[in-house]
Amino acid sequence: MSSSSTGQCHSTAAAAHSASESLITADNSGNKAQSPALRAQTPVKLRASSPAFKPSPIKNRKPSSVASASTSQLRLAPAFTPRQQSRPRQLDEQRAEGGTKGHAQVLPVFESMSVGSDGCVERSTGPVNEEFFMKTLPAHTGQPPYMLPANHFAIDEQLRRVLVRETHAMSSVGESALPAQVHSYHSLSPQETVDVFGASFPIRQHQIKAQSIADGRCYSLHRITGTQPASKSALGAIDKWKAVQSPSIAQVYEAFTTRAFGDNSLVIVHELKPLAASLKSQLVDARAQVSEAFLWSLVLQLISALRTVHSAGLAVQTLSVSTILLSPTNRVYLNSCGLADVLALHGSLNMDAAQQGDLQAVGHVLSAILGTNAENYIAVQGQAPVVVPGAGFSPDFKELFGYLNHRLTPVVAIDDILRLAGSRVFVELDAARRESDLLCDNLRLELSNGRLVRLLCKMNFITERADSVMDPEWAETGDRYLIKLFRDYVFHLVNEAGKPVASMAHVVGNLNKLDAGSPEKVMLMSRDEKSCLVVSYEEVKRCVEEAYQELVAPTRR
């Protein structure tokens, strides 16, 4: 389009805007019609996406001026540009590093899951079916540099993929021989099987994902086969654990016995942590190499959880690499709380000794993780090799390791551990706040989605209805026809080559202005390009509300 024609179009549009509130033309049949304005990222022309039609007359509207069919050649200025949203610089730097916790080594996200021959879920690094994911929005769509790209209106791509994988993991059900329903839970799917070393002999614990009939949420059922509670009142011990809440504990909900699996099984219901797996499977068995920063974060998260448990007068007693979960974002969770109390694994319990055992178990966890690297072993004459942090670890961490393994003092205290951690406690706190900022920053981008969805639902309830119990012309006359033209303007735009214009910025910007009732004018053009109407977003919003209220009114026939 030439610059002279562009200037003529702009001046014509300005004259129409100042001359009247609405601009209407008459077609060959004498009916009055309106049409959507062409406001896109680049000057475009709305062409007929279907054969030309003759709209019904608009009722209760008094036009003040009429334009000829030549107004179909009008062109508009670039589309509305949303205000630039500030994004904290540290979040962008953090995303560039590839994780939400900058001080810790980020572990790979589980890409897919399948059920193995042993009934357990096998995780692999192959990608999940890409058809399950919404396609990534393009970063650049050829719009002017002052306009925000389409992907600005969506959450961070890495965060979105993690959340989608978590949703997929919670909703998928693997094939297995598990019963259809156990207690008040259905859709059972096997997860991970671990050995709990809280007694003189290991206890095999099968973790099963299931959905509750009561609230529809997914939970993790920990099944111990061939086991019964120590006494009839032992199940009541789980009530104390229900009140224990910590960000680093998979919360306990209930415990029950069942014969649904074909034997006497004890089941303890825990909070489900999707995509999280035990430290044993992720680090020990995989012989993964971890950084010192990750180990400090691990210790501080475990100590935080144990502090909450011990403050409630309880002890975990089953802490090991098999009962600690690690998420893709390096979050740590205690996952077998309450089992030792229900089974009374240690008989008469000395609480102080049990809590000391929990703190000692943290040292054993560090030994198991460090033991995957040959550099962390030293040979002692006449004895088996001993695990000691290698030369790459700081003196502070070596002191912490010796303290947790009783090489400095026979008694371990949480306050002493925090003293040894020193400023690293603030590193962990800052990482948690950065993660919170990241989530809030992305939540802010999704803040208006529900509002715009409600607006879209109202518009689609109204447009092009073909009910047999009502006037078939209802959706094509009066204010309802104006709503249809606005819908065409927002979603059915095509360029001069006849190709669809799929601009997210155009859609989001116009829907936001419609929902806000902006006084800004917009020109709507009919599909046959023979007539147009200039109205404000405020008027279109009023038409939507009135038509929707008329549609849902109980007295309407």
Topology:
Elements lengths: L2 H17 L3 E4 L5 E2 L31 E2 L22 H9 L14 E4 L5 E4 L32 H15 L9 E2 L2 E12 L6 E10 L5 E8 L12 H5 L9 E7 L6 E7 L5 E2 H6 L7 H20 L12 E3 L5 E3 L4 H5 L7 H20 L6 E2 L7 E2 L7 H10 L9 H8 L2 H22 L3 H14 L15 H14 L12 H13 L4 E5 L6 E5 H16 L5
Helix pairs in contact: 6-8, 6-10, 8-9, 12-14, 12-15, 13-15, 14-15
Report on this structure.
With 557 residues, the protein is α+β, with helices and mostly antiparallel strands. It contains 15 helices and 18 strands. Strands 6-7-8-9-11-10 form a six-stranded antiparallel β-sheet. Strand 4 (112-115) and strand 5 form a beta hairpin. Helix 6 packs antiparallel against helix 8 (351-370), helix 12 (449-462) crosses helix 14 and helix 14 (504-516) packs across helix 15 (537-552). The longest helix is centred in the last third of the chain and has 22 residues, at 424-445. The protein is elongated and about 100 Å long. The two termini are 49 Å apart. Residues 1-127 have low confidence and may be disordered.
